[in-house]
Amino acid sequence: MKTIILETPGQFTFTHTFAPETFGEGEALVRVWRIGICGTDLHAYRGRQPFFTYPRILGHELGVEVLAIGDNPQGLKVGDKCAVEPYLNCGTCIACRRGRTNCCASLKVLGVHTDGGMREIICVPVNKLHRSEKLSLEQLALVETLGIGAHAVQRAQIEAGEYALVIGAGPIGLGVMQFAQAAGANVIALDVNAQRLAFCQQQLKVPHAVLAGESALNTIRDLTEGDLPTIVFDATGNAESMHRAFQFLAPTGKLIFVGLFLGDVTFADPDFHRRELTLLATRNATSADFRHILHLIETGVIDTNPWITHQATAETMIEQFPSWLQAETGVIKAVVSF
Ligand SMILES: [Zn+2]
Ligand SMILES: [Zn+2]
Q1: What is the per-residue pLDDT for 305?
Q2: Ligand positioned closest to the Cα atom of 98
Q3: Verdict on whether the full-model pTM lies above 0.90
Q4: Could you tell me the fold of the domain covering 2-131+307-337?
Q5: Domain spans, the chain
Q6: Which ligand neighbours the alpha carbon of 49 most closely?
Q7: What pLDDT is attached to residue 326?
Q8: CA of 217 to the centre of ligand 1 (A)
Q9: pLDDT per residue over 261-320, tens digit each?
Q10: What DSSP string runs through 174-199?
Q11: How far is the CA of 148 from the centre of ligand 2 (A)?
Q12: Which CATH number does 149-281 carry?
């Protein structure tokens, strides 16, 4: 079967490998039809993904079809189209026992820590398959990316009408904006890139967009009638931005770190205490988030049409991949047909 392997940073090979023919207890064989490319894949290609080993078959945002499956509690059957939750958890650690499977102590992400979906057929746990009878294969491949935003918004417990500032209008920040709006927030987008802000306003109908810079704080204060937002998401993974994010919060507000960087975040404790702020981290997503996303797309609350800006096939991906690293190409999400 067709397989693409990332051999070392910057070097993919297109090859053929043997397709799996059997599957274990609680598993299924699936045909991978669509693969979304995300920041993790780009970082791995650049050689900048922490704790990453080569060679690796990438692909963790998957739109698949069930090829072979045993009896299962979900009632999944051959031919069902599914999104794949790529977070393989142990089921027994303290995080798993508390239902926080996204934080499993021995979490392995399919396509990151183990070989993923850039091949025609893979074996996956049945409980990581999320079926939809309505979504296209492309939409199913987007669910994982959206999951990061959906989970971040779930962590924030937004109340309708709250102002939510989303710092960073990359694919993760855009997901946060869509789910925050679905939760009833009055969203303000903040980014250094005017083109991305225009995308937020035109495509995602985000009501307010602010260009990062010295006047941003005053602009945001004016937009919120002097209050400042009670929710701030930082989806930049940028140390300076995460440090500055505290300044945008109203008293009693919540700051949610969506992006991460390898280093320390510091903040002034008196300011933190005076406003009685809440600081939250968020990572990955849970099965419940996946079901929530499928429901919101199926019912038209979340529109996935603006997301896919670039497409390739298994045969053309290697040539096109480097261009997806360039912000100038306006890439939001590239999807590979396999
Ligand atoms: Zn991803
Ligand atoms: Zn666990």
Answers
A1: 86
A2: 2
A3: yes
A4: Quinone Oxidoreductase; Chain A, domain 1 (3.90.180)
A5: 2-131+307-337, 149-281
A6: 1
A7: 85
A8: 31
A9: 889 999 999 999 999 999 999 999 999 999 999 999 999 999 888 889 999 999 999 999
A10: HHHHHHHHHTT-EEEEEES-HHHHHH
A11: 19
A12: 3.40.50.720
